[in-house]
Design a protein that fits this description.
Blueprint: H1 10-25, H2 34-47, E1 50-55, H3 60-63, H4 66-71, E2 84-90, E3 97-103, H5 130-146, E4 154-160, H6 168-174, E5 185-196, E6 200-201, E7 205-208, E8 210-219, E9 223-224, H7 234-245, H8 247-252, E10 259-268, E11 274-275, E12 278-287, H9 290-310, E13 314-323, E14 326-328, H10 330-344, E15 349-350, H11 361-365, E16 370-378, H12 398-416
Parallel strand pairs: 3-4, 3-5, 5-16, 6-15
Antiparallel strand pairs: 1-2, 2-4, 6-16, 7-14, 8-12, 8-13, 9-11, 10-12
Helix pairs in contact: 1-5, 2-5, 5-12, 7-9, 10-12
Length: about 425
């Protein structure tokens, strides 16, 4: 099918912009996306697209150990009955099934943008572009539904909750998103300010890293600041642990392997003249190699407890394994790249290097050939340059129609191709 037939009308473009702004103004945190899911289901219903609601939920119990969750004080919710929505667009004849995914949740961030569509909820913001993702997939649904008599196979639409931590993709898999009909391949996009609106980045192979969480509680003996010899200073012990853990990557991991150990939180004490009896370190580990991941997890426990013991304290380590690393399937990536090149021109399609961010689309990629590409949303002239998870993140809405056309074209190219499923 010629990409010339995959168009976004001025009316649809206006609707995309309006919808994205509505979602941006009404963000919902992970596992709370009830209004967003209602909007999605309502639009699919208006289009006459077969769909089901209440799919998925909290996926953490599916990839984190029960012991680690209990130690972290986390009681995960149900893996089903959540806010996920799954739609089906059936072509003229049976064939392959391609899944297209958009995540729907926002972040606990207070927006700093001064724009008419600024978040109306204090402390909650679509700072990762999931409002853009959801809007684009709704646009793709409309375009492909209109072309359903011109292609064979099935397009499955996956509107996913809880990407920002609770692993909504894992829960939707558990709830059958890859079944009935069985999914042969999956495509997703993610906004990026590395590229301007109208540009994309995509490459085969390593794409996003495994993302784990670490919490270390140091137990010492409190006391008066003027009598340190009568106490065991948990702050000092935590500081030594923090510094020692930075040697894992620099001295124990092959320099050609990608790994990050970052502790972004250290909490201790209540007054400047009191030695605290406890301190808490919280951080993240990012890796691609399973062997490196295993090594770092083991060494964090050994180093933390060993340093603490040497300094007359104790350390309790909780390590939560998060999302796995994701790799783009080479054959599917070639299809996405070809579709994008036809839509925006080969000069606007760039190689995308691996990043150390985590992404729960990796659970899908473990099961079926998957490609996630980066959709440019930057516009330096308008100050749209801040990355995801920043309180001033924004997106050039000219990217909406581009995202719709590329995702729709890639889906149809896959269905029409002879690529192995």
């Amino acid at each position: 099918m010629s990409v010339d037939r995959i168009q976004v009308s001025p009316e649809l473009d206006a609707w995309l912009r309006e919808t994205r702004r509505y979602l941006h103004m009404n963000p919902e945190l992970s596992l709370q996306e009830t209004n967003t899911a209602r909007l999605v289901a309502g639009h699919l219903r208006e289009l006459g697209i077969e769909h089901r609601t209440g799919v998925g939920g909290d996926g953490r119990s599916l990839f984190m150990s029960r012991e680690a969750l209990a130690a972290a004080g986390i009681e995960p919710g149900s893996t089903t009955g959540g806010t996920g929505v799954v739609g089906l667009i059936r072509g003229r004849r049976p064939g392959k099934t391609v899944l297209l995914r958009a995540d729907m949740d926002a972040l606990p961030i207070d927006e700093q943008n001064d724009v008419p569509y600024r978040s109306t909820r204090a402390g909650v913001m679509h700072a990762c572009g999931h409002d853009v993702h959801t809007t684009i997939l709704l646009g793709v649904a409309e375009v492909l539904h209109g072309l359903r008599n011109q292609f064979d196979g099935t397009v499955k639409l996956m509107f996913q909750p809880a990407e920002e931590g609770p692993g909504g993709a894992a829960a939707m898999i558990q709830d059958g998103v890859l079944d009935n009909p069985p999914v042969d391949a999956a495509i997703a996009l993610h906004v990026a300010v590395d590229y301007r609106a109208g540009q994309i980045g995509v490459s085969p192979g390593a794409t996003t890293a495994a993302a784990d969480t670490v919490k270390i509680v140091v137990k010492g003996v409190g006391g008066h600041a003027a009598r340190p010899h009568a106490a065991v200073d948990a702050t000092v012990v935590a500081a030594h642990i923090l510094v020692a853990l930075q040697t894992i990557v620099s001295r124990e991991v092959d320099p050609l392997e990608a790994a990050v150990v970052t502790f972004g939180k250290l909490v201790a004490g209540t007054a400047n003249n009191v030695i605290p009896d406890s301190a808490v370190l919280e951080g993240t580990v990012r890796t691609y190699s399973p062997a490196v991941r295993d090594h770092i997890e083991r060494r964090i426990g050994e180093i933390a407890t060993g340093v603490a013991a040497a300094m007359r304290a104790e350390a309790q380590v909780t390590y939560l394994r998060g999302y796995p690393a994701m790799h783009n399937d080479p054959a599917l990536t070639a299809i996405v790249r070809a579709a994008a090149s036809e839509i925006v021109g080969a000069d606007n399609v760039f190689d995308r290097p691996p990043i150390m961010a985590g992404e729960d689309m990796a659970f899908i990629a473990e099961r079926v050939p998957t490609c996630m590409f980066s959709l440019g949303v930057a516009n330096p002239e308008r100050g749209i340059v801040y990355p995801p998870h920043h309180p001033r993140f924004d997106a050039d809405e000219d990217a909406l129609a581009v995202g719709v056309r590329i995702m729709a074209a890639a889906a149809l190219r896959y269905l029409e191709s002879g690529a192995d499923s």
